[in-house]
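ARCHIVE RECORD
Type: protein–small molecule complex
Small molecule: zinc ion
Source of inputs: curated submission
Record status: active
Notes field left blank by submitter.
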Amino acid sequence: MDTPKEIFLKDYKQPDYLFETVHLKFTLGEEKTIVSSKIVVYPGLEGSSSPLVLDGVDLKLISLKVDGKEPKEDDFCVDSRHLTLYSPPSGKFTLDIVTEIYPQKNTSLEGLYKSSGNFCTQCEAEGFRKITFYQDRPDIMAKYTCHIEADKSLYPVLLSNGNLIEQGEMEGNKHYAIWEDPFVKPSYLFALVAGQLESRDDTFITRSGRKVSLRIWTPAQDLPKTVHAMYSLKAAMKWDEDVFGLEYDLDLFNIVAVPDFNMGAMENKSLNIFNSKLVLASPETATDADYAAILGVIGHEYFHNWTGNRVTCRDWFQLSLKEGLTVFRDQEFSSDMGSRTVKRIADVSTLRTYQFPQDAGPMAHPVRPHSYIKMDNFYTVTVYEKGAEVVRMYKTLLGASGFRKGMDLYFERHDGQAVTCEDFFAAMRDANGADMSNFLLWYSQAGTPRLNVVSAYDAQAKTFSLKFSQEVPPSPGQLVKEPMFIPVALGLLGSNGKDMPLSSVYHDGKLESIAINGQPVHTTVLRVTKKEEEFVFTDIPERPVPSILRGYSAPVRMDSDLTDADLYFLLANDSDEFNRWEAGQVLARKLMLSLVADFQQNKPLTLNSQFLHGIRSILCDLSLDKEFIGKAITLPTEAEIMDIMEVADPDAVHAVRTFIRKELASGLKQELLDTVKSNRSSEEYVFNHLNMARRALKNIALAYLGSLDDPEITELALHEYSTATNMTDQFAALVALDQKPGKTRDDILADFYNKWQHDFLVVNKWLALQAMADIPGNVENVRKLLDHPAFDLRNPNKVYALVGGFCRSPVNFHAKDGSGYKFLGEMVVQLDKLNPQVASRMVSSFSRWKRYDETRQNLAKAQLEMILAANGLSENVFEIASKSLS
Ligand code: 0A1
Ligand code: ZN
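STRUCTURE (tokenized, with ligand):
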């Protein structure tokens, strides 16, 4: 490997040359594909006499012409990454480039490749350079046409971006299609699909009355499973019009589902390409979680049409400009389609389980990274999920209508441009005349801020004070940090459990009004911007219980002086449902940490009865939303607890979580059984909030019961399994039975495979379930599954299910004998040869190795060193492995 080059945001330069139009022609063949491109080039703003450098990887140059003439040999050069024209003509000129590529051999699934016999592309972030020589960077925006020629029987369907302007027959059983995209776009949004596909067709009438044809393409046998995807697409189109006033801008919108795809999906202009698992669903084969994910991701990709495509990123450091914003939009969409509180809870759990650990480890980076070696490594939970939190904070600070004004101004200013996070900030600020002083630090400082809150009530003065102090922990390359702008949504509960009316607060030596239109409020948003800051509420008749950070108004770790009694009070009374859940989680985290300490000191574990009563009262509260109950009785994840420990102890955390689950299950057995029985349903599967919530609660209750060694429960779970009429219920029963090793488990797993072996998406669930099992020594079973006919190292979904699933089992991945680490080390080296992006995602499981005890540290470190020493290592894996070790 050449020494990998680190690329820095501070080195960004505007391009010297711009592209006006690009005409591409693909001759798709069985051995090779010929790509001809004609590009109209013109000088950039500055004008230039510098060389024109085009990116190109794994390409064979067949011919090159500049303004129709072949350049002399010493006028250009080609190396393994670039084609350089030393002195291009001044003014406008054309380039004609012909290259040869080999999609059949492309296992990286980047550029043009084959999936199940069909051609498809993936160009984000830098895959277009594997198709032809180009300035492969998002600030090069051009108009494209795409001419495709291929065998008619093998590839009856030929698709690209924009409108189909011509198609016809050719000699030798071939045919062609010409597509034209009327919008300028960066190369990463280019797409081509050719193959044997059929479509589900529908139409959407936009609010201005235009008719848009919608087509979802899959192999014929999968078409019946696209009903939900089509429903989701139409719902997303309507939602974007209603909430943001954004209409679709072409007459055709295509979605193609492919089984081999590195990520979830891709927002190519008018030709979204999806991992099949995020398109295909039927009640029999997909769970409620799958249905919800499809809704969210179809929405996400569709929303990119405005946030990403019409307005794109100037450079890849700005990725969160489109991703943070589009995740925020898909979160809001899913909230509006289901339960807002439950969606918020799920998103915050994801943030805590995956993003907080990243932000505290060697791969910590700001929402807008300062540097990268391989951009593919920065499609992270920080850029996506923390980025979405940053967008949410604008809305919290500016209100829904202020946020909408900011969005309108953003599109008014930047439609058709490639812009930066500052441009988004400026639109929000200017549309609202807002003072948002140090808000931009959210883009540049990594690390999760710690916010500490101390409260005091003065009965005489009738004032209630909250003192905030904040600290942002150091992260790689950033040792000293400045205080952040933290919006803290807050309410104060009186002893009657109701929100107190709030009208004014002392802050910075002034009495500030917080009333709105002269009316007191029940929730106010405090703007915490300094290292230490006090807010004093006046006219507070009794000591309140503060409900702080309502709706999780900022992505921080909060510590407060709330007592357990305060937390139980909030759990029972808070008008902010998110904070009701949060109070329960804080109690559970405290409990788990104290039991972990007991476990480590070999003390017997006991569960305090107040916690059990708290859970019982939530479980039996008929007034609550069932999906909310499910969330509220679910303990924090093991990853979340390990993340808040000094030294992460996977065995102790697993033992404690298992212990509490079992205690709750035996203490609440009757209530849980009643919950299962009263929430069964015989009606047909419908994906709506009420039905989903009922299934969720029933299945969480069943999972609790499954932790008991109790033949009655085994009978119950077997009954649920055999009578289930949909995958949600069937799989939940399988999960309940999966907890206890033995013949019943083996039989039921075999039965499930026999039933579903023809359906690769269901088989992946079966692989993942076994991979994640906490049965001691499970690594051997996982190794065996590598040879199972259902497994294939070339298919990312299967790797994520089996290898990724295994890394999520704390006890087996972190096994003290190092067997889990050794397995992952071997897999990474093998995978890297086929698909560096997938290998790099897998190697990330090692990155927090310093959080564990010394024995584990040494074992994990040895694997990282072994990986780094491997021959021909990709830049992707190199970046993660080397940063993890540093
Ligand atoms: N932009 C897509 C996801 C995506 C990102 C990177 C990829 O390759 C490195 C592929 C797809 C989205 O946000 O949906
Ligand atoms: Zn996206």
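CURATOR ANNOTATION: Residues 122, 124-125, 262-267, 300-301, 323, 376, 379 surround O-methyl-L-tyrosine (ligand 1) (CB under 6 Å).
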